[in-house]
Amino acid sequence: MGFPLGVSASPIMCKAIASNGSNSHALDASYVQRAAGIADKSAGFTSPHPNFGCVIVTPAGKVAGEGYLYAQGTKPAEVQAVEAAGRDLCKGATAYLNMEPGDCYGDRAAVSALIQAGINRVVVGIRHPLQHLRGNAIRALRSEELQVDVLGEDLQSKTIEGALKSCLLVNAPLLYRVASRVPFSSLKYAMTLDGKIAASSGHASWISSKMSRSRVFELRGRSDAVIVGGNTVRMDNPRLTARHGGGHLPMRIVMSQTLNLPNVAHLWDVADVPTVVATQRGARKSFQKFLASKGVEVVEFDLLNPKDVMEYLYNRGYLSILWECGGTLAASAISSGVIHKVYAFVAPKIIGGKNAPSPVGELGMVEMTQALELIDVSYEQIGPDMLISGFLQPVPDLTPVIPSVEETSAIDPTVTPYESSIIFFYKTWDPYGAFSNFSPHAIQMTDESGNYLSWPSVEHYYQAHKFWGVNNAEARNCVEAIRSAKSPEEASRMGRTMQRQHPDLVRSDWESVKIDVMYRALKCKFSVYPHLNSMLLSTAGSVLVEASPHDLFWGGGREGEGLNYLGRLLMQLRSEFLGDSSTPNNNPITHQEIEMS
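^ that's the sequence the OP posted. Answer follows.
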């Protein structure tokens, strides 16, 4: 689920009312934004850790101390801020954090510093994006009776949204990495006013001004690696250093399928900065040996493409990648879906030329309605140039999306929109696929006469009971045909088809009883198979979501818009098995009139 910046993110967020009104929100927002601002000072140095900032403010409104994580393995921001403020000024103060503290080293240094200093309140911009750390520090602080307010949860207003946006942006690389399982990638290019990145001859030095090029050095200094294609190496012979931009030096990466590269190039000098060449398996083995002799690392791919390269860099732990390639590779990267942000430096120059290259090559689009639109676009004049930047993909919102959260909380009061773990199941081969009504677990259910009938699966039983008890020979034949279906999928197809083609054969009370029909079948299934019962009970405390993107009644939908009745029935059944006296015995789920499922 994406978070369109500046707009409230999640459909499950509960309304929160601040006790101190809008003035308090404005102060909280300004200090959280300050924490995000100082956290950004370490961009590029903390990777693969987040950028942390902490600001401590006394009850009188004075900033007593602040700090930020300089690099991985250095003193936490919270510890620095406490030390800067001193114990006397920390007593009763409020600590503002752009992100919930992590505890990678197991010493709880950040949390302990705030508690021991006598901090009274902590305002957190966003929860930690890593699942194993998410919510831990917040729970630890609250257990020590500190007041903890989280933006977007405990504090909500337009002013707070602006501060929340700042917190998302300062750690956008980590959020994208967690959500997409690829590094955060930005495409940078400089072009003339008529959209050219070089003259027809290939000459490109310089399109943008010296001030713009200094900004590029800063962008490199914030990145773990810079990527170019083989043509850029041949035509421009770049160094790809971050000179003038700080002390961090990103890895240089060259993507070349054929290794048609020059023997002499600045990138083969790895005395100060390493270079990796990504190529197709088997390409120019002799040149690979030459590069290795220079200290250049060569990585072969079965099929060289941006997506596989990004997955490889993800596995190496990279957070942020800057693409400074030509139009062909840029188009391939955009088409692969690995580009998240674009930086376009536009110079007030016109070069012309029918064959002069443009920043992005062929994307296969034939109508303007297909054009990709940037999100959260910014415009900044840099000397004579204009920098236009924006996102191709929204910054991810990692708040758990629990379908029908209020109804789910009624079944399991421990469920909260922000801290509950979610277990998704859908296909029978998923880790929790046995929860599906399509799983191949036969059940025996009694009929009206008290006789036991065997059913190959819960789905067989459910579909057949659409026509159960109808005084019609065709309906009775349909029941037997569904019961004899060779697979749950076949039973489902038969039941749905007959319901659609012959609605007159469906029992008149089906809409009001179908939930109970499913519940009885599930209860039988999870009662007679001990391993299924154990699996269900092992999920205690977690939200169960049937992850069908299409079934909005039994499933959770694509983005949590579904009713998730199957997941809710399983949670109700789990509570019953666990002996939860707060859950009614029968079926507490209120039926809603909906289309046939």
